[in-house]
Design brief:
alpha/beta, six-stranded mixed β-sheet, 5 helices, globular
């Protein structure tokens, strides 16, 4: 069943420069609607959706049972500023976040920690997008 997205979230997902083989990380996934929409666009790729909220992760896991079973999506409860790759986990090609205070300037210290975590969890050449543009804004990943 296709994921129903708000027009704003649909515009964000449509604007992501996705490739079918990409490994994608969504920070602050909430109930996982955007992650499910991204999963539907990936072929051999994968999306990991993370959120600090146990409730959000439970909602995302329940809503994405098919995508998770198919291996196109996984979820993990962790704050973005605490995210690290698990042993054997491949780095990510694209990262996005919608309404994440650490990246939109509301929490600059957490933002610096989160950007350092993103740098460690991504391949060279990876890109990071947040909302607040038209509809996206790209942030540089510190290297």
């Amino acid at each position: 069943m296709p994921t129903r997205l708000s027009p704003r979230l649909a515009a964000i997902v449509d604007a992501l420069p996705l490739e079918p083989h990409f490994r994608v990380l969504e920070i602050g996934c909430g109930p996982g609607a955007a992650a499910r929409a991204v999963a539907a666009r990936l072929g051999a790729g994968h999306i990991l959706a993370i959120d600090r909220s146990a409730t959000a992760i439970a909602q995302a896991r329940a809503a994405a049972a098919g995508e998770i079973a198919a291996g196109r999506m996984s979820v993990r409860q962790v704050a973005g500023e605490d995210f690290v790759l698990l042993p054997g986990e491949e780095p990510y090609d694209l990262v996005f976040a919608v309404r994440v205070g650490a990246l939109d300037g509301r929490h600059p210290e957490a933002g610096q920690r989160l950007l350092q975590r993103v740098a460690l969890a991504t391949r060279a050449g990876a890109r990071l997008f947040i909302d607040g543009g038209d509809p996206l804004r790209e942030l540089p990943i510190p290297r």
